[in-house]
Amino acid sequence: MIKLVIKWIIFALVIMGTCYIPGIEVNGFEFAMLIAFILTVINVFFKPILKLVTLPINLLTFGLFSLVINLGILYGISYFIPQYQIHDFLSGFYASVIIAVSYFILKKI
Predict the structure, then answer these.
(1) How far apart are the C-alpha atoms of 58 and 55, rounded to whole Å?
(2) Contact between 107 and 7 (Cβ < 8 Å)
(3) Quick one: which of 17, 59, 101, 105 has the most CB atoms within 10 Å?
(4) What is the pLDDT of residue 107?
């Protein structure tokens, strides 16, 4: 249980770290914790369904469309949580790459 909490805090710190990308804003660590929780729930329950639906285009782009899926998820979260703002596409793309890599690493630990 403590390992799960530590991973959650590390993931929230990664989300707070994306604030240093110009165009990304998070208003406080508590909202980063909320975003980390929501991202984890989405990655566990909804992302496998999205990957299955987008499998043909994912095969054509050699898996790079997964980054677009991650970006769409981040934009969706920023739409519903106004304390997390993504101001332009490129900033959101960089943040989605950083978050995807960190989530992959945290999942392996």
Answers:
(1) 5
(2) no
(3) 17
(4) 83
CA nearest 91: which of 80, 105, 78? 78
Instruction: Name residues whose C-beta falls within 8 Å of residue 38's C-beta, 6 or more positions apart in sequence.
Output: 77, 81
pLDDT tens per residue across span 16-69: 999 999 999 999 999 999 999 999 899 889 989 998 999 999 999 998 899 899
Residue that is written with structure tokens 């991202």 in the block = 39
Q: Which residues contact 51 (CB under 8 A, 6 or more apart)?
A: 58, 66, 69
- On whether the CB atoms of residues 77 and 35 are closer than 8 A, the answer is yes
Instruction: Give me 30's structure tokens.
Output: 């508590």
CB contact burial 33-56 (16+ within 10 A = b; e otherwise): bbbbebbbebbeeebeebeeeeee
DSSP-assigned states of every residue in 9-50: HHHHHHHHHGGGSTTEEE--HHHHHHHHHHHHHHHHHTHHHH
Q: How far apart are CA 7 and CA 106, in angstroms?
A: 7
pTM: predicted TM-score of the whole model, two decimal places = 0.85
